[in-house]
Write a sequence for this structure.
């Protein structure tokens, strides 16, 4: 293949990766919104006070679980930002930094998922509602979307590897 054809295909793949990164970032933000709704509609925000948690009979465990769910939402926003930044660095051709950003996004999404799972164990499991399970499922989808982004990035980088003559 000629260089022009390879260049055209690489640019098309970069645009596809850029669109996919944008959609993945938006999905992260929608997941964060669903998580915020699930968090606010349950009684977990009430237990962000140690006094309220102790007075409820659940103790400080529900305080810690409520705090971890709140941290999960914040970390999910950071993950969305990392995916968005990897999209921008790929458009500039900085593939090694894009790879590192995507790896960091997988780690942060995984951490947010683990923090969100802490609310599924008692005593917080008695407080949350059904929307929270949708939030946890959407976090799994976020991790899967970022994992597929690695495949797309690898296909973009394949056009930039040196060819043997």
């Amino acid at each position: 293949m000629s260089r022009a054809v390879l260049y055209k295909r690489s640019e098309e793949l970069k645009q596809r990766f850029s669109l996919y990164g944008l959609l993945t970032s938006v999905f992260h933000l929608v997941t964060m919104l669903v998580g915020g709704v699930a968090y606010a509609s349950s009684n977990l925000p009430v237990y962000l006070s140690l006094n309220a948690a102790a007075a409820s009979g659940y103790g400080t465990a529900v305080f810690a679980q409520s705090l971890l769910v709140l941290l999960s939402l914040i970390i999910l926003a950071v993950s969305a930002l990392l995916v968005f930044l990897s999209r921008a660095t790929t458009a500039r051709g900085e593939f090694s930094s894009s790879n590192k950003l995507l790896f960091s996004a997988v780690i942060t999404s995984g951490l947010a998922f683990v923090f969100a799972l802490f609310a599924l164990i008692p005593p917080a499991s008695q407080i949350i509602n059904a929307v929270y399970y949708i939030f946890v499922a959407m976090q799994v989808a976020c991790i899967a979307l970022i994992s597929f982004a690695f495949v797309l990035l690898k296909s973009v980088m394949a056009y930039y590897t040196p060819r043997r003559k």
Residues 9-159 form one domain. The chain has a mean pLDDT of 92. The helical segments are 3-41, 50-56, 60-92, 95-117, 131-158. DSSP finds five helices and no strands in the chain.
